[in-house]
Each structure stands twice: as structure tokens, then as C-alpha cells.
Amino acid sequence: MEYSGRHVSILSHHLEWDSLPFNWLLFRFQRQSVPVGGDWSLLFWRLKYDHPAGIRKAMQASEFSRMVSVFSQPSLMMIEHRDRDFALGSYWGFVGGLPEMNGLANTDFGGFKRVRFLTYCEDSRAVIIYMTEVAPGVIAFSKIIEADARHVSNVTGLIDADSEAITMCVTGWKRRSCDQCALASIPCDPAVCNNEKDFDADRAERKALLLRSGGLTLEYHRMWWNGSWTAPTGPMGPMTAFASCTLKGPGFDVALLSVMQHEVSNVHPPRSSYRIVNEGINAMNYFLSLEDTEVEASEKLASSIDLLEDPISLDWLSLLDDKTCEICGSTFTRVIDVRRHKENMHGKKRKYECWICPKSYSQNGHLREHVRQAHVAQDAFSCTLCSKRFGVKHKLQRHFTTVHENRRRFECEVCSKKYKEKSSLKHHQLVHHVHLFEES
């Protein structure tokens, strides 16, 4: 099949326009995931190559080989979404190898590269497609097909992100080594190897796993890839690849710890101790500036509450002047909303208790939302990408736009920084632009 010049959808029938796999592989929406270790939830794999003389030098000189080399880096793989006919996942490629090797820092480590993948079955054969952005507007891909019990075919190339067309590609195949060649760590070259080995038993075991699990899993990938492979490279002779897929061990532990630190630092960027202290001082100075009026404001609030409890003596005109919480600076349209805000947010009053679990809430609506989300699954609103449940629909919509689409709708008018939540913007303004509050 000729791939060059064709639309990316030629790679799979799952890549329909605006489909979930299509948008996922082309990085049309983002998702920041922190991996969690467990049985078959993560898979660490690495490839070691034995190149013929001259092949390594030729590959290093090739810009195409450099771009697609991310697919051969040590990687930590996880499946993030499972559908009836396919699964979507991603992995972190360790460019240059793991950051730490045998307790020593690896100076060749060049950071992490996030790769997306789509995996599915076609005529009881495994298919996996990897994609990652390797340059602005350029996406590298690699499609691997389980041809038979012993062989896999692969096509690797580049995609123009704007036109979604495949610009160039190369095809090839790999052959699983026989036991004798694998033990001798030599290429299992069909031109010279006469050792006979039946791989049908291994294939039958994988098919049985496929039926038990109802689809491709990381366990299947481990059974499929583990071992020694030979790939022809033309007149220079074959190349040997040694694949190792593990669920535990020193390499797995280093990879998982490194990825967790990297992802958490992206979600919550680390702050220096100087910045933490500086923000604390700014916040303290702001609240100290309110100290002179705190007593007066408290007396006014107390008198307001007394009036609210006695509607006959209520003087609404005298209450309309103060609709701002003197503790946090939040403003409201009604004075009664100020009272409710202070009771719920600053007084931590939680009078609505869940009758199923010990949790309690300050508002009855929040309690109903909790019950739908945590105890009545059929009434909850579930995210189709990560299966997280919400008690109300608008919170599901907010979750999708802020987490999966990574939108930041709230922009600071002073410094143009953007935030996902309005509360985060208010906190930023309170800490970094205190003078605005003082001037107003």
C-alpha cells in the first residue's frame, strides 16, 4: 500500500474525521495524566539495538531517522481510554535513556517526549499506531501490524499537521529470533539460519489472552514484544533488536518515579522558598492593612445579622452599602449573600450531612451533587475520556475544557496571565497586585 501523499486516515479505519482516535493521535486536545502503578496499568519497555557496521553512522546523519528515533527510546506506557473496538494510550519516551542509570546520573538524558498511541485488533491480529510531534507542524508516526505468529510489518513516516497528509514514509518488517540465535545474541537471518521453531503455540496463547480480556491490553503487548527480533537493513546486513517489557524492577521504578515528578511539576509548578516567603509577606501586609477597619466591619456585620433576624425592623437601605466580604474581598449583589458566604466559606458551617457517608456540606445543592457523584452512579455525569464522575453537568463541561482541552479562560487585566479557574485568578491578583486593592 502506498502511503506517501495520502491522508492520515489511510492508516486505520478508526481515524474518521473528528473521531476520538483521530483527535487523540493528532494531539487535538491535551490531557495531563499522573501515572499510578498497579497490575498491568503501566508497562516499562526498552529496546537495545545491535547495528551492522555503517548503519549507526548512516542513521545519525539522517534527519528522518533522528525524528523517528523517539519510538525506540526507553518508555513508560499506559492505556488511558478503552472503547469496545480500540484503546487509546500514551507513553513517556526517555530521550537519551533513563535520567539515572545504576544510581548515577545519565548525562545523555534529554528530557521526556510524550507519545500517543491507538491499539486495536484486525482479523485477530494486533495493530498499534504511535504518533508524536517532532517539530512545529510535523508529526511522526509508526504503525506496527502483527503479520503472523513470527513476523510484524511496520511503516514509519511523517505527517504535515496542517494538511494531515503523509509526506514521507518507509516500510519494513521484523522477524522474531529462534531460541538458538537469541541465546547467541546474533541476527536470526533467514538467509543463513536453518533452525526450525514453531511459534504457533505462542500465538495461540496470545489469542487466548485476547479472548479473556476482551481486547488488547498491556499484558498482550508484553507477550507480543518480549524477546529478540531481526530486521533487514539492505546490503549492510540485518539488525537485531532486544525488547524487554517489565512491570517491576529497578528500571521500572526509576522510570515511574521520574515520570511522576515530571508530571506533578507540570500540573503544580514548583516554587522556590523565596517566592513562597514573598507571597506570604504580601498576603500578610494586605490583611494587616485591613486591621484598622476589621472591628468596625464586624460590628456592622453583627448589626446586619440582627436586622435580618428581625424583618420588621429591617432597614434595607442601610445594608446596601456593604456587599463586600472584608476577609477575602469577594463582592456580592445582595447583603444576605455576604452573610451566607461568610458562614459557609470562613465559618466552615456544614449543616447538610450525607446519610450514606460521613461527609457534610454547607449547601443542600452540594450535598445532592455529592450523592449523585459518589453514591448513585447512574445519575452522575461521566467524562468519556477519563471516566471521572460529576454530580452536575456544568462541572463535567468545565472539567473537559480545563483538563482535556487545557483552556484558560480567566485572564489577568494587569499582567495578562491566564488561569483555568476564576478563584485562581482572584488569588493571583490578591498576591501579586495588592496595590490595586489598596488604591481602590
UniProtKB/TrEMBL annotation:
<dbReference type="InterPro" id="IPR013087">
    <property type="entry name" value="Znf_C2H2_type"/>
</dbReference>
<protein>
    <recommendedName>
        <fullName>C2H2-type domain-containing protein</fullName>
    </recommendedName>
</protein>
<keyword id="KW-0862">Zinc</keyword>
<keyword id="KW-0677">Repeat</keyword>
<feature type="domain" description="C2H2-type">
    <location>
        <begin position="381"/>
        <end position="409"/>
    </location>
</feature>
<dbReference type="GO" id="GO:0008270">
    <property type="term" value="F:zinc ion binding"/>
</dbReference>
<keyword id="KW-0479">Metal-binding</keyword>
<dbReference type="InterPro" id="IPR036236">
    <property type="entry name" value="Znf_C2H2_sf"/>
</dbReference>
<keyword id="KW-0863">Zinc-finger</keyword>
<feature type="domain" description="C2H2-type">
    <location>
        <begin position="323"/>
        <end position="351"/>
    </location>
</feature>
<feature type="domain" description="C2H2-type">
    <location>
        <begin position="410"/>
        <end position="440"/>
    </location>
</feature>
<dbReference type="Pfam" id="PF00096">
    <property type="entry name" value="zf-C2H2"/>
</dbReference>
<feature type="domain" description="C2H2-type">
    <location>
        <begin position="352"/>
        <end position="380"/>
    </location>
</feature>
